[in-house]
Each structure stands twice: as C-alpha cells, then as structure tokens.
Write a structure and sequence with these properties.
- The complex is a heterodimer of chains A (337) and B (562).
- Chain A has 337 residues and is of the alpha/beta class.
- Chain A has 13 helices and 9 strands.
- In chain A, strands 1, 2, 3, 4, 5, 6, 7, 8 and 9 form a 9-stranded mixed beta sheet that branches.
- In chain A, helix 2 links the parallel strand 1 and strand 2.
- In chain A, 53% of the residues are buried.
- Chain B is mostly helical and 562 residues long.
- Helix content of chain B is 74%, strand content 1%.
- Chain B has 24 helices and 2 strands.
- A two-stranded parallel sheet of chain B has the order 1-2.
- The radius of gyration of chain B is 24 Å and the shape is globular.
- Classes of the chains: A alpha/beta (337), B mainly alpha (562).
- At the A-B interface, helix 1, helix 2, strand 2, helix 3 and helix 8 of A face helix 3, helix 11, helix 12, helix 15 and helix 17 of B.
Chain lengths: 337, 562
Amino acid sequence: MKSIRMGVVLWAALLGAFPAVAADPVVVYSERNEQLIKPLFDAYTAETGAQVQFITDKAGPLMARLLAEGPATPADLLITVDAGNLWQAAERGVLQAVDSKVLQENIPAHLRDPGNRWFGLSVRARTIVYNTNRVNPGELHSYEALAEPKWRGRLCLRTSKKVYNQSLVAMLLAEHGEAATEQMVRGWVANLAVEPLSDDTRALQAVAAGICDVTLVNTYYLGRLLKEEPGLPLAIFWPNQDPAKPKTGVHVNVSGAGVTRHAPHRAQAVRLLEWLSSPAAQAVYANINLEYPADPSVPRDPLVDSWGDFRANSLNVSEAGRLQADAVMLMDRAGYH
Amino acid sequence: MGSGAIAAGAGPVTIALSGSPRRQPVMLPHRGAWWAVFPIMLITLIPVLVVFSAWLAPENEIFAHLREHQLPRLLENTFWLLLGVGIGVTLLGVSLAWLIALCEFPGRRQFAWLLLLPMAMPAYVTAFAWLGLFDITGVVPTWLRTQLGVQSFPTWGARGGVIFVMTLALYPYVYFIARSAFRQQGLDLVNVARSLGVGRWHAFRRVALPMAWPAIAAGVLLALMETLADFGTMAVFNYDTFTTAIYQAWFALFSLPAASQLASILVLLVMCLLVLERALRRRKRYARERPASAGGSIRLDGSRGVAASLYCALVFCIGFLVPFAQLSHWAWARGLRDLDARYWSFAWHSFSLAAMGCLLVTALALVLSYARRMHPTLALSTAVRFAGSGYALPGTVLAVGVYIPLAALDRWLTGALDAVFGWQVDTVLQGTIWVMLCAFTARFLAVSLGPVEAGLGRVPVSVDEAAQSLGAGAWQRVRRLHVPLLRGSLLTAMALVFVDIMKELPITLMTRPFGWDTLSVRVFEMTSEGEWERAALPAVLIVLVGILPVILLTRSSDHAAS
C-alpha cells in the first residue's frame, strides 16, 4: 500500500503546485490549431507586451462552454475555422458586435458578419483538383458539372460530415434551390469511384494514384502534400469562372474570430482582433497554413501564388452558415454520407 | 497476503459449481451504504441526467430527419459493429488469458505484458496507421500497383476495417480482467473435473469458463461500451454509427438537444446490454470457498508450446508491433521536427492526470462495489449499474454534461462567497483540475467497476461473515480483508483507467485548465487538420509513457495473484 500512499502525497503536491491564472491576459477560445495560432500570439505579446492565454477545442464544445459559463466566462475571443460555426455563435448570442473602422477596412464585406459580430481572417478556397495524366483541364467546368455522367467512376469525395463540404453544398443551395441541388448531389454520389474518404489528403492521394480522376479539396491540403511530395501529378482547376455568370465563383470559407458577448477584457480583445486583421498578421495567419489572406492585397505564400488568381463566389460567407443544416439534411437524403 | 487465514470457512468444493442462492448478509446499516454511494452517484449521474434532459425540450424536426434518413442505417451498422467486436474480443481475450494465466510455454512471462500494449495506443491513431499501410492509397496497395501491376485487390471495407481495429485495440480489456480471474480460480477445479473423466475442452467449457464468466462479461461489456462511444476510429474509416450521428447532429446540424436525444438512446441501449448480461448470468455466484492451490499450470510441450507462442506473437505483432512501427516511422520522418522542450510538460501532464485519475476512480469504484455487496438490493444495484453508464456516452457529450452543472455550481459558489464573506472571486471550480477529475470519474467509473466487482464477487460472503463474527467493523473488513484480497483486481482497474485517461481526448480538451496541454491534446492539434503523420510523435509518446505503468502494474498484479 506504500505506492498508494505515495500517490496521495504526489497528488497533494500537484494540487498545491497548481499554477494561478496569470495577470489579466486576453483569453482566447480557439478551434484553430495551436501550431497555427501560437506564433501569432507570441508575436503579439512581443510587439505589445500584452499576454494572451488560449485553449483549443472543437467549435461545438467551445460554444457549449461559452453558453454554460454565461456571464462568468473567462473568454474574450472565439476563433473558429469556418463561417458556419461563426454564424451559429452569433445566432446563439455568444458574440457581440464590434464597431471598428480598422476591421472594416482590413476585411472585405463578404468575409465578415453583416452585423459585425465576427470577421474572417483568412480564406479557404475549396476547389477542383485533377490528375494531370488522366484529365484534360478542358473537360472541367464547374462544381455542378461534376454531376454529369461523363464523370461516372472518376470522382472522389471527402465525407459529407466535414464542414467544408457542408458549406460548399450550402453555397450551391443558396444559388440553385433545393431540388436542383439535391439532383446535383445525387449525380456526384453516382459518379463516385470509391466510398467517400475521411479526409482531403486521402482524396488527393487517391487522385494522384489514379484511383479516381478529380476531387474537391481545400487548396492548403494540396499545398501541404506538394511540399512533402513535389512530383505528384496533381493540378488545381478553378471552377465556376464563367464571365457570363459574374456572381458565381470558387467556394470560399473563412477562418475567423469574434469578441465574446461577456468578454471580461473587451477593449484588449478588440485590440487583438484588430491586430490580427492587420496586413502583417494576416500574412502570417494565412501563409502559415497556405491559406489566402482575407485582404487580397496581402502577399501570399509563393506556392499559393503559383496557382494563380480566381474569382470567388461573392455570396456572403454567412449565408453558408445559415444554410448549413439544410445542406446536411439534403446530403443525407441524397445518400452522400 | 492473508488468503490462507481466510480459508477457515472452507466449504465443499461443489458449491463453486452450482449457482448458490443469494444470501442476505446482515452488515452495514442500510443508510450507511447510501451515504457512501450517493455522492459518487451524483458525480456520474448528473451528467447522464443532463443528457437525458434534452427530451424536455426536444428538437423534433431534426430528430425526425435523423430518424427517417439515418437511424435504420445507424442501427444496422452499430449492430454489426458490436457483434463483430464482441465476438472478436471474447475469442482473443479469453484464449490469451487462459494461455497466459494457466499454461506454461516459451515466452509466457514476456507475453503476459506484451499482450497488453495494444491498449496503450489510441484506437483512432492505430486506425490511421493501418489505413496508411493497407488503404487504397496506402503503402502496400501502392507497392502492389506500381511494382507488380496488381490493379484490383480486395479491400476490407469500412465495416471490416473498423471491427478489425477495434477488436485489436480492445481485446486487452477482456484479456486483462479474465486473466486475473483465471489465475485466482486456479486449475484444481478443472483437475477435479478431469479426474472425474471429463475431457480437456469440456472441463474448460463447463468448469473454468462459467467461473470466470463474470470477469469475462465485465471485460466484453467494457469493450462494447468503448466501441459504442468511439468517434475517432469511426471517423477515420468513415463508418457511420450512433456516435458519429450524435456528432453530426451537434456539429453539423447545430443541435445539441438532438445530439443528446440520440445519446440518451445510446445509454438505454447499454442498459439493455447490461440487463442481458445479468439475465445470462441468472444471479449465479461462482465464489470458491477455498483459495487455489499455489502453482499448478498446464505445461505445453513441444509443438503445442510453439503453437501457443506463435499465436501470442501473432496477436502481439498485428495488435501492436505493426501499427507501432508505422507510427514510429512517421514520428521519426515527420514528427521529430516538432519535438521541443514543451513535450516534457505534455508528458508530465498526461502522466500525472492519469495517475491521479486512476487512484481516485478506483477508490470510488471500490466504495460502490462494496456498498452493493453489503446491500444487494435492487435499488442499489441498479444505481451502481447506472453510475457506470457514462462510459458508453461519446466523450464530448459527457463532457458537456459535466460542464453545464459544474459551471452553474461555480456561479452559485462565487455568488455565495460574495454574499456571505464578501469575497470577490472569478471562479472556484472552473479552470481547476477538480473539474477534470469529476469528468474522468463520470467517464471511467465503469472501467474500474468491472474488475473490482468481478474481483469482489470471487470473495465469498462467508469470509465477511467470519470476519464480522470475529468483531471486525466495516472499515476494518475493507482494509484488512478486501483490499489485500482484491489487490490484483484493484491494480487491474488502476492500470485500465490509467491508460484510458492517457488516451482520453474530449474531456481533456474541454476541461483542462489553461496551459495543461497533454500528449493526447497534441494528437488532437495535429489530427484536427488532417496532419496524421505529425500526430505520430505524441501518439508514440503516449505509448511510451503509458507502457511503464502497465508493466509495473501487471507485474505487481501477477505478484498479487500468485
């Protein structure tokens, strides 16, 4: 029983040594990974002397946490990796409006909440990637066209359970309405070469291996894969660029942030958010993960730059958030799992 | 070990083979049992009740959608998954436990702990390692395609893959618990049966197996509950189960109520499993009234010994070595770039949390099982059973169930402190390790209840009565009788909870204090954006930090049993 007694002593020692909360830092709840945000917070601290404390988790639990904590929350800022969750957070009333000239100048209108409760900081483009040995880019046209019978057995898709696909379908839903979109998703499912895959990287590997010819992925997954294995026969195609339909375009989502409703350090939180939206910070925020900065004038990573420019869908990203649940149910009905 | 002294009340051996009717022992005053049980029950029951409370304000529209478009498929998928994993872990776990506990063959001592190692790896990381090897884009099929020109080859499909990975990840639960049962019951009853002319297989099936059944069932139930609650592995294979639908309802349809509604169905499903197991056992108690004679094992000579070694080696290789090698390769090739001094603190946090958690949870499980033993009333039994049901809930849902009432309590406490003493504090509980420990208790109580209850069941009630007649009070009986007698079971329980906490993710994520990142949190940081190769480094470290306690605990539980 000596070991148990020692355990108790150890336990007591640990609790005693438990660190007290540091002096009044800005507190961030973040869905964005530690390795993607910590460098920025470190830079912020170095620049301004202000401390930042953060905790990472998925958006769902973070939001549940904010709701449970209510006015007692320690959190000042919520960062998520898609507009759907930001929209949901605003809807649930856990964010507050921030009236800031700096933010409105730095972030284009379609990448922020119309009510100013959240702001996109980087753009994630979801586009078509094809196998250069098996597809002539002339064959490709739009997201919708991937439902055509000529792609039978040639398409790979990630599971519909990933929010990136949900928000893509939500955008198409906003554009085409329910019946046409469901028809299109059924077409995608009919064209699948293999059952939906569990992540974008595997979808890309399947295309590279020739198991299928085209897939839909966020561009930074391709960037990441190409940095590890430069020789893969993969290339990007920007869909829905038809000049006759100027409103359509590549589906973009945002990773962004909003100040929490009960933020104990509101002023510092706004300052941090404004700093994150500054061109220099945006460049780090986006380029560290090969994403696109929200402000188009901010320089991109050279690899990302090499993929050229594209026209993004001009729909406000919050629409995708609003329609996300409908999109999920639609995909369920269409048998896209 | 005082077991020799306890044999005073030795009865006829045949009692062990018949289901003896339940005796009603006159022990603790009834209220005492409830006082012990009630606070522990609150910790585990409140989160489950929070989940059930979703039915008070149901999200009918979303639930109707799920029922129509998802539920039939989910039930079918979940059924096959449970059946496959159930059969798999029983076959592997029982056969290995029997070999290791009661046979002698080359390498047995090493295999005794080697066979536990698959448990130290998070199943979803193992799953990814297997996919990295054998999926359509994996190493092996790619090699076949490019080198041999093989274009099509059988893939195992999501269902087969999930069952394969979960079986190999979870058989150690059955193996570990059944092994200590087999060892405690010894061989002499089997030998008695053999001397009466019963065949080898028959003696195993009719004598050894029924006696160990409570332990085996406890292990299988743990494995099935963990399978039901698993999200990570299912997501890697894109296999839809009840739990993936719960996450879908919450994260994609943004409906925590609908998710909770589904989760409460899951809890009911587990209750059915528990009742089923009870019914199968039909209230039999297979306590032996005399300790097993020391030593005694079946020598497997020549080819049979080699076959036993090969079998164990095969399970070890497939269950641990191959995926671990793949992970190590990734960790070496990709993960080392991430290695820095902070990993010391990640490892320390993981280790200390697991150590604290396993001590606490096992102690609480002992109190619960003991109270139930003193008062085997239906109400108390049901309450104890229900207390363990948190293990079958998806971790994130349970974490919210813990967090909501604790946040409310915290608000009340800070208000009270302000009103009564005029102390202005931001929080009392939130951001402390107590929240985590509460949540771990709610989640893992079942894990330690399993072995502790199975162990306590093997101690005949007559022993308690003898001790009581000699004037030993309740506390003294626990301390001087049961804790020594149960040492093996308690160590088993601690080891299981320890590795479970090491691997645990959702509760750790949601309740960790600032700066308390653990190794499993690192795994999450890497996998949440699909960087599986980078997740290999923390995963390998989880195994390495987890191995040492597993080895130590196995060795001392072996020691305790012999």
